[in-house]
Design a protein that fits this description.
alpha/beta, Rossmann fold, 12 strands, 38% helix, 14% strand
Length: 340
């Protein structure tokens, strides 16, 4: 059975954030609480191996190559994941090297891979590099992706939110606010993730007995969001009451566009994001979102990657991180006299 911080928090009767601080050695909690959490974690099997710090921080055995899309211009979500990776590598005395999605094309780069581990942040087009790692037996990890996403390639470690649980949470919370007509918006840059999240949201809607309108699941946003604006301007009884976005970045762009053309949020249409990047709390209105604990995902991926060599036998590791609904100003109670 997979054990995550949510399991530990439930067993120890504390919050997930308290568990996270205790496991990372952060200040701000009592030694008694820390000891209790560590005991519960050990009993549940979370600590199967010791996070021993290396004798040398420069050892190649303690080095991670981190592959990110557009290394020169990191997305906000990627920065949060990278923050968690750095937190753990600094704690463990390990080093890391950040590279772009084309890394591995050169012979010297491929030789460097042999002496290291590779961690992919939200991979999209890394097929050739992942295959090269597989061929050479290089240990790999990935964030925000499930193992089946990489078929026919193999990833040793995956750390991600439970997409099915997240979709169910979104539907439950929105239904509690009175929403029954729920749409989804992705965009080309996030297509792999958008498709996965759209599919889970459709399943969650069906499970809740709510309608799934194919034309409301939009995976390509037209210039200036013209297709979204046209959808929102349909008669109230014929359009969705809320737009669930594949990421916070999509939600931020959509929010600005809607407000610019005179569409009120949340009075005319509610907007929900996913990830909980910092800007969502500063937007006007602030954006309701789902916190997937990106920093924790990065931290755990780095931790598992550095501990992987201690495993015998070395089985695939798949860890899910709990999610949290964060309600803000872009959603409100919806009143609809028309039954769905």
């Amino acid at each position: 059975m997979r054990v995550n911080m949510h399991d530990i928090a439930k067993a120890a009767h504390v919050s997930v954030s308290t568990v996270s601080r205790a496991l990372r050695g952060h200040a701000g909690i009592s030694e008694e609480t820390r000891a209790s959490i560590m005991k519960v974690a050990s009993e549940l099997g979370y600590f199967q191996y010791t996070d021993a710090k290396p004798k040398s921080a420069t050892s190649t055995a303690r080095h991670i190559i981190v592959c990110v899309p557009k290394a020169e211009n990191l997305a906000a979500a990627h920065e949060l994941i990278l923050r968690g990776i750095r937190e753990y590598t600094e704690y463990a005395g390990a080093s890391l090297q950040i590279v772009g999605e084309n890394y591995g094309d050169k012979k010297s780069e491929r030789a460097n891979l042999l002496m290291n581990r590779v961690l992919f942040i939200t991979p999209k087009g890394y097929g050739s590099l992942i295959q090269h790692c597989n061929d050479l037996g290089i240990t790999t990890a990935a964030t925000l992706r499930t193992p089946d996403f990489f078929a026919p390639f193999h990833i040793d470690i995956t750390v991600h939110p439970d997409e099915a649980v997240m979709a169910s949470l979104i539907v439950t919370k929105l239904r509690g606010l009175g929403h029954k007509r729920i749409a989804f918006v992705g965009e080309e840059r996030t297509t792999p993730m958008a498709k996965i999240r759209a599919a889970h949201l459709q399943k969650a809607l069906l499970a809740a007995g709510l309608p799934v309108e194919p034309e409301w699941f939009i995976l390509k946003v037209e210039k200036h969001c013209e297709n979204i604006i046209a959808l929102v301007r349909q008669p109230r009884e014929e359009r969705p009451s809320v737009l669930v976005c594949a990421t916070d970045t999509v939600a931020i762009v959509l929010l600005k566009t809607l407000l610019d053309v005179g569409i009120r949020v949340p009075e005319d249409i509610a907007v929900v994001g996913i990830h909980n990047i910092p800007y969502t709390s500063f937007a006007k209105p602030s954006i309701t979102t789902v916190d997937v604990h990106l920093t924790e995902i990065g931290y755990e991926a780095a931790r598992q990657l550095l501990l992987y060599q201690l495993r015998e036998p070395r089985r695939q590791v798949d860890i899910t991180i709990p999610v949290k609904w964060v309600e803000r100003g872009s959603t409100c109670t919806y009143h609809d006299n028309k039954e769905v």
